[in-house]
Amino acid sequence: MTSWTETTSPLPLLFRRRSSGEIRNLASVSSSILPAFGTVVDEGHLQLKKFVIAPYDRRYRWWQAFLVLLVIYSAWASPFELAFKKVATGSLMPVDLVVDAFFAVDIVLTFFVAYLDKSTYLLVLDHKKIALRYVISIYFAMDVVSTLPIQLIYRMFTGNSHYAQVFGFLNLLRLWRLRRVSELFKRLEKDTRFSYFWIRYIKLICVTLFAVHSAGCFYFWMATHHKTLSNTWIGTQVNDFEHKSIWLCYTYSIYWATVTLTTVGYGDLHAVNSGEKIFSIFYMLFNIGLFAYLVGNMTNLVVHSAVRTLFMRDAINEIFRYARKNRLPEGLKEQMLAHMQLKFKTAELQQEEVLEDLPKAIRSSISQHLFRRTVEKTYLFKGVSEHLTVQLASEMKAEYFPPKFDIILQNEIPTDFYILVFGALDVLQYKNGTEQFLSKLGSADLVGEIGVFFNTPQPFTVRTKKLSQVIRISHHHFKEMVQPQNEDGMIMIKNFIQHLKDLKQEMLQEIPFLTESLDELNIEHIQANENTQYNELVNFHGDTNMEETNETSTPGAITLRVIIHGHHPDEGDTNGKLIHLPESMEDLLRLAEKKLGKRGSTVVMGDGSQVEELDALRDNDHLFIF
Fold first, then answer.
1. 284 and 215 in contact (C-beta within 8 Å)?
2. Where are its TM segments located (predicted)?
3. H or E segment and range at residue 8
4. Count of CB atoms within 10 A of residue 34's CB?
5. Separation of alpha carbons 373 and 471, rounded Å
6. Which has the minimum average pLDDT: 160-164, 207-211, 292-296, 452-456?
7. 76 exposure class (CB count in 10 Å sphere: 0-12, 13-18, 19+)
8. CA 175, chain centre distance (Å)
9. CA dist., res. 301 & res. 601, Å (int)
């Protein structure tokens, strides 16, 4: 087994950012750096061995970036020196030697760079293993061959300074270094600090320029080595071209390669001899593949950047067709369009599909960071335990609404209530065919809770006044979280009742059952029943009148709620009374006599079936007692 002195996990190196030898931004790390399942990341073994370089050391990264600049020079100089041998033994030769010296230094450094074991995903730090792995790989042989100044060595041993053609082709081995550029682009494409579009765009430009440069240089080399110089593509246009300026000939070469690549083909420069025609055939076949590669990549980039816009336009067109087909009013159609446009504008802020892929703990932490302060400021949750606050914030769902959008409609079935994060809301009521303004709500205000708490249709319409963000929680989730929390439930009931008493008189007048019940639901009464579940304190029935039935409820127990009627199911429909189901049939008959004003002996369901056992009943069943 490899010891921890020889291998170590790369993750600690990524997390220690302050050291000059480590990464400062995790976005620049390749996604392949992952520890194997079961790998223990030991924080006690973070130090590298002496004379070992971490592959993701910041200084080593800068060195690699500097070598990429030299690779760009090599990619230009190698084909250029093949075509124009004068510069290979003249002005460019000292530059080539300096560049080769830097790559020779890199070969030496590679013997000290730790590597990632692909089987264990551990960083190997043993010097012998690092050196052996590099020596037996193809990289070492190719690095050495592409770095050795073969022409200079030949001159030193033979004393012959003549430039043989073989040296030009050996210089092409320097193109092996292009793999560094490919690795750089792969790393930049994964780096979220840079635009993926522009990285890919620059890569495509570089590929095109290198293809044009290489083809032009090789085509000129063919002309210079033809037996009859005048019978070549450039010899027919430029007399005695071998003695002309290097840059003039290079311009002609790049012009021909560009015109041929773009399939323009003016005809002024064309293949003359058989060799040139064969090369032109293969070059044009290559151009077909290169052109398809470029067009495919550019199309993908453009479509990817516009795909959301296309989806939005399709969705808006569907709304227009639906509204026209069903003859929807203009105001409702405008609300639909505004909501759809806002949905696409805020998609980057919500990113529900991203959050769904994250672990629950991370989603919870994000919700705490975004919504916890707002939840704590809401009147209903003031004073509740931190545990419940955390649960509430974690279950909140954020939504954006455009101006003049109805969040809650009057008389709709309550399913959620909302907390306003930012923006402004108007509370409205439709009465006698007219819309009446009741109040204005601001940040951290709660809406929809009256309908949810009393399980009655929403008494008001709530409409956005401007662009607003709200967080909502469903009635079901809220009930599940609060039921086990007796103390928190009592605190919320107290806050709720106090809020109801502080409502404006014009709002209370629109909720008659609420006004009649506020005298019964007072703080002193709640304090006398502190062990009672919060949802047993607020009772309602079909005609929205409140009935107090705590005397028949078992404190602390979760009981069923049923609606009782004082007649046979076939004798018409009257408003019933919502009560907590007692423990026995006798208690049920006694409570029904008290609430309905008459004694009954038979209990049946709405379909006429007689009730014999109370355990068979379900929540919100209708019981007919006569």
1. no
2. 60-77, 97-116, 136-154, 197-221, 245-266, 278-296
3. strand 7-8
4. 12
5. 12
6. 160-164
7. middle
8. 38
9. 78
Query: Mean of the per-residue pLDDT values for the chain?
Result: 77
Helices (H), 262-329: 274-326
Token reading at 400: 């954006």
Spatial separation of the C-alpha atoms in residues 287 and 295, rounded to whole Å: 12
d(CA 528, CA 70) in angstroms, rounded, equals 84
Q: At residue 170, does pLDDT exceed 80?
A: yes
pLDDT of 42 higher than 50: no
Overall size of the chain counted in residues? 626
Ramachandran assignment for 597, one of left (phi > 0), alpha (psi -120 to 50 degrees), beta (any other) = left
Structure tokens at 278: 């064969």
Neighbours of 48 (CB within 10 A): 16
Chain-centroid distance, C-alpha 134: 39
Of 360, 391, 365, 392, which is closest to residue 378 (Cα–Cα)?
392
Q: Where are the beta strands (DSSP E) in 423-521?
A: 425-431, 434-441, 446-447, 461-464, 468-474
What value does the mean pLDDT take over residues 89-95?
A: 81
Give the residue among 65, 64, 90, 66 at the shortest CA–CA distance from 77: 90
Exposed / middle / buried, residue 108 (Cβ in 10 Å: 0-12, 13-18, 19+) = exposed
Q: Angle 10-13-19 (CA atoms, 0-180°, nearest 5)? A: 165
Rounded to whole angstroms, how far apart are CA atoms 138 and 141?
5
- Is the CB of residue 282 less than 8 Å from the CB of residue 215? no
pLDDT digit string (tens) for 565-607?
A: 888 887 766 667 778 888 888 888 888 888 787 788 888 887 7
Query: Taking the model in full, what pTM does it have?
Result: 0.51
* Orientation of helix 196-224 relative to helix 58-83, angle to 10°: 30
